[in-house]
Amino acid sequence: MRIQAACLLALVALPTLCLGLLEGLYCGKEDCYDVLGVTRESSKSEIGKAYRLLARKYHPDLHRGVEAKALAEEQFKLIATAYEILRDEESRNDYDYMLDNPDAYYAHYYRYYRRRVAPKVDVRIVIVVVLTIISVIQYYSGWQRYDSAIKYFATVPKYRNQALDIARDEIQERIQKKGKNRMSKTDQKEELERIIRKVIEEKMDVQGGYAKPTLWDVLWVQLLICPYTILSFIVWHGQWFWRYTILKQPYGRDQKLYLVRRYLKMGQHQFNAQDDKQIEEYLHLELWKRDNFEAWKAEQDEEMKKKLAENPRYKAYRRYMKNHGPGRITFED
After folding, report:
1. Domains along the sequence of the chain with CATH
2. How is residue 328 annotated by DSSP?
3. What b-and-e string marks burial along 157-193, b requiring 16 or more CB atoms within 10 Å of the CB?
């Protein structure tokens, strides 16, 4: 009798084992295709149509009685699970793989729970968050560089003395107070540094990479105005070609400085960071003319060679290179 019962149990479990259906995965011991009444060749639209028909049929609100409602709710959940699996292309492929490879138990569990556990984050949200973080860091770093530049100028005697001369009246009024409101020496020193910093910020035009940051410089804004930037670039070069190549109009100051900067291979901020005297020297030497620039560049290179030749460290380096040659790394080392 016991043998007959065991055989009967094996016969009942045999179909699910052969089909590769596992409890706790996908639709459990039920075939998701059979649950929806479709086949593996059915399209997404056919699967969606079958799901909507069965969902209306087994919706718990359409059944009366506790037992009928409970059975309908269980079937409704199974139908919803089957639809969620078969409507997604990747999960459907994993399910088909399980049906085709019933012996790969561990692979089925891995594929199933990998998709369940893996967070489903919209790529657009990730891009927005990354751009926002980069923009915030960029803006904050810009303020740090600007603050470092102001602190540096406040320590340079030339700019510090100029700031003291400009704010002398304000310094005398705030620091040399009498009576109860008289400031301590520590407070006077802090107030003096604050006034000097304020004057330098107002009078000093910091250029280059240490310039005062603005929201126009951050990545987010640059991306938003990118179409306008590209259009402006095209229009600017078109006007340049028309005015100075076709019509042969004379260069203005800005156009001359643009040519000098291009010959020097400098960025806008780097070029603007130079002293005004240096800029005026470029204009005085007419370096916007290619021939003048080439001659001036050759002179600068020759002077640099002479300075290096007189530099003790450079002489020592040349002697070392002459005696030992460039360093080499071999497998024997």
Report:
1. 2-117 (1.10.287.110), 123-219 (no CATH), 224-324 (no CATH)
2. -
3. eebbebbeebbeeebeebbeeeeeeeeeeeebeebbe
Dihedral of CA atoms 243, 246, 248, 254 in degrees, nearest 10, equals 30
Residue 279's Cα: distance from chain center in Å?
36
d(CA 70, CA 61): 10
Q: pLDDT tens for residues 43-89? A: 989 999 999 999 888 888 888 888 888 888 888 899 998 998 898 88
Can you tell me the distance from the alpha carbon of 251 to that of 287, in angstroms, rounded to the nearest whole number?
A: 12
Full-prediction pTM beyond 0.90?
no
